[in-house]
Amino acid sequence: MARKDGAMKRRHSLSVFLCLSCLCCAGYGQASFPDKKVTTGNATAGVAESLLIGRGDLLHVTIFREPDLEQKVRVKDSGEVDLDLVGTLHIAGLTPGDAATAIAQLYEREHYLNRPQVSVLVEEYSTQSVSVMGQVNKSGTVTLTTPRGLIDVLSLSGGLTEIADRHITIQRHSKNESITVFLPNDAAASLHANVMVYPGDTVLVPKAGLIYVLGDVARPGGYVMQDDAKLTVLQAVAMASGANRTAKEDATRLIRKVNGSYQELIVSLHAMERGTMPDMPLEADDVLYVPFSVARNMVIGASGIVSSASSAVIYAAR
Fold first, then answer.
1. Cα 214 to the center of its chain, rounded Å
2. Total domains, the chain
3. Do 295 and 280 have their domain in common?
4. What digits encode the pLDDT tens for the residues 285-310?
5. Domain CATH number, residue 146
6. Does residue 252 contact residue 268 with C-beta atoms inside 8 Å?
């Protein structure tokens, strides 16, 4: 009986040993295949990287545990690079991660290395400038040698003007696409909205929409529709520091250009304040005219009011 129990224990120990051996072998197999890790890393990098390798770029190629094969190569006009021992390889149009995979495969295919771990870094871009156009204080080109955040690029261009729209368009150099980024006034929110700008990109900052509050108000002028560009009649009048005591608020005129002609609507500020009339949203280039109580001022036509708006002082929200 004792011998039987001993045999059973030995079989149990052997089974445990075999299971542990299989697990160790599986772990060792994963550790000994660096190409699997490289593939996973490249897949992640391919999603994150927007800038593709271009002709004229200077690349720094390193291979793990192969210091003699570390090299800096320039991408030729043909899109190829000359690599030590293995010759030329076309990599223009690839991300750095994909280029690293292609170089590793070439060294393995030519039987120089077995499953090499390759890293590719773009040290210098052939197109090292970003064009910043529109409502910035210093429009033109900004020199970049590495990708920078949108806020940094705008700072290098002197920052946004007071009438800049916060919906900024970035035209990608490496891809036939553009993205629009909303950069709010709030500093903390702007940092969350910050995106990368790459050498060769073009940044377009449009002019924000303006509305005009004219007539018998404390501060007549044009006002920038900033942030989400939503502004109502009462908000616009408040931005103009309110109507004066002599104003005829119940006869306020809202003038809007529709299909090339001006349309006019009479609104009551008092009714909006009391809630008996809904506060109306405004559109870019709308003109609110709060008339004086003097009757002769009511004869001013819409075209005359719009003409006076062109010389109005422009105020930006702080």
1. 36
2. 3
3. yes
4. 999 999 987 654 555 667 677 777 76
5. 3.10.560.10
6. yes
Question: How long, in residues, is the chain?
Answer: 318
CA distance 197 to 70: 29
Q: Is 126 within 8 Å of 56 (Cβ atoms)?
A: yes
Question: What is the mean pLDDT of the segment spanning 117-126?
Answer: 90
Q: Which residues of 211-230 are buried (b: 16+ CB within 10 A; e: fewer)?
A: bbbbbbbeebbbbbbbbebe
Q: What pLDDT score was predicted for residue 91?
A: 96
* Residues 177-206 pLDDT 10s: 899 998 887 766 677 778 999 888 999 999
Same domain (yes/no): 189, 220: no
54 & 111 share domain: yes
Domain end among 124, 152, 172: 124
Q: Is 149 helix (H, G, I), strand (E, B) or coil?
A: strand
Quick one: angle between helices 34-48 and 96-109, nearest 10? 150
Cα–Cα dist 210/283, whole Å? 8
For 202, what's the count of Cα atoms within 13 Å in the CB-facing half-sphere?
A: 10
Quote the domain boundaries for residue 140.
129-205
User: What's the maximum distance between 2 C-alpha atoms anywhere in the chain?
Assistant: 123
Which of 289, 270, 269 shows the shortest CA–CA distance to 213?
289
CA dist 126 and 55 (Å) reads: 7
Residues 137 and 115 occupy one common structural domain: no
Q: Is 44 exposed, middle or buried (0-12, 13-18, 19+ CB in 10 A)?
A: exposed
154 Rama class: left (phi>0) / alpha (psi -120 to 50) / beta:
alpha
155-176: average pLDDT: 89
